[in-house]
Amino acid sequence: MWQPGGRSALADVLGREWDVLVIGGGITGAGILLEAARRGLSVLLVEQRDFAWGTSSRSSKLVHGGLRYLKEGKFGLTRESVHEREALLRDAAGLVVPQSFAFGDYPGRKPGRTAFLIGLALYDLMAGKRARQRHYVGRDEFLGLAPNIDGEGLRGGMCYADAKTDDARLVMRVLQEAQALGGVAVNYVSVQGLLRDGVTVKGATVRDELSGAHYTVPAKVVISATGAWADRLRPLEHGNPPRDGVAAPGHKPGAADGHRLRPLRGSHLVLPHWRLPLAQAVSLMHPADGRPVFAFPWEGVTLVGTTDVDHRDDMSFEASITRAELDYLLAALRSQFPQLDLGEADIVATYAGVRPVIDSGQADPSKETREHALWLEHGLLTVTGGKLTTFRVIALDALRKAAPLLPQWRASLDLRPVFSAPARLPHVKGLPAGQGERLPGRYGALAADVIACAHDGELAEIPGTASIWAQLRWAARHESVQRLDDLLLRRLRIGIQLRGGGAAILPQVRAICQPELGWSDARWEAEQAAYLALWRKHYSIPQP
User: Fold this and answer.
1) TM segments (predicted)?
2) DSSP string covering 442-465, please?
3) pLDDT tens readout for residues 233-268
4) CATH classification of 20-61+169-236+362-420 is 3.40.50.720, yes or no?
5) Where are the domains of the chain?
């Protein structure tokens, strides 16, 4: 996101002393950057790969209150999540949008109708919806809401509302707002080690991953918001820093203070909307183990998820769906939508993300808490766990924890609007219906500038997606795109919306973006080859 002077001015940016250095460019780090900047702190965020490279571009895309947490007695987490969902629907309209859910009522399915409706009544109460909501519909009406669903034994169904978003775009919007308030975010800068005054962390040594240059970044507070990668920066034990910021072999993460991470992988399928046409999100219980699985319309496609399994692969590499997970999700679809005869050939793309979950020793990964945790070790504040929905609450908790390390700083940490309200877009000839709300949600005050950068024909939507061609030009020009996968997997979502990662439209993408990026023909061709290889390895269908 950082643009003034570009990477040629990186030495000046990284050489300053900062109040706060945030490590990690996912939604948690972005949220901390925003909340710190709006409260007058000088704050720098560095990300070793691209913004939202990890979990924050590979989530289930849901902004939800966590209805299932009620069953587990997590009333505080549910209330907090519902409040944040409502705030995002209000302050990020066009980016966070309502999504209705339908859950079929079949004999023997758990939770049963009565328990589900009690939970929904509590859900409404927590959201401030005191008027009686109609949550149950009969069989015929439910089949109208969810055509193609299995009708055998269906008695009716429960309906309720949550929300959805483009997770990577949400991160970019948060970073944009933070930078407008004076925060700075730089991608492809990795932390090599921690600076210390005695045993107290006072900054970090970092490396520009593009040039190889090293820098020393002094800071009063260092916050690790690296999610599932958090243990790589934590001390081996109190007072003993890890070598090069990475825990030594044999170290049991978090053992010193009782915190321990349990990386859990959630994998997803993407299908063409015409093959699984849904207006509602459909929640179902997997026939094999009773776990909840969902399918819902998202950005011109239908998204199906999710698994919840221990991720034991090397965290240095991108996560990928396994064959077993793909078969598991397909089995759920075939059970719930038998007449559609869905199969492997219908899958457009796959993706997998690793959730940073605090290990409480549950045998079933799905029963681990989604609450966030913070711990302060000799000046290094680690923030992990939590949910996409609650990033603002997590950020404010982090600043409260860090406040004693900033004795001269005085600021209220009360909740403020998530985003400043963008100006309404005037009518624009040729702009497709719905883009007048969608673009301000994604770009805030810069939405009119996105439209203004369009060349002839670039206000049209990219076939098979809900994005317009001009968004490609804007991203290449203004959003710190360093690699082609930054553009196609995170600034826009072409890589998971179109077959082959969008290979068929790469000539048009090249015509728009290569001049903006200033890449030579050789550079573009190398980036394209690398992107397509990455897509085949991590976003396609795994071999049996």
Assistant:
1) none
2) HHGGGHHHHHHT--TTTTSBPTTS
3) 765 334 343 333 333 223 333 433 445 778 889 999
4) no
5) 20-61+169-236+362-420, 63-143+155-165, 261-358, 435-539
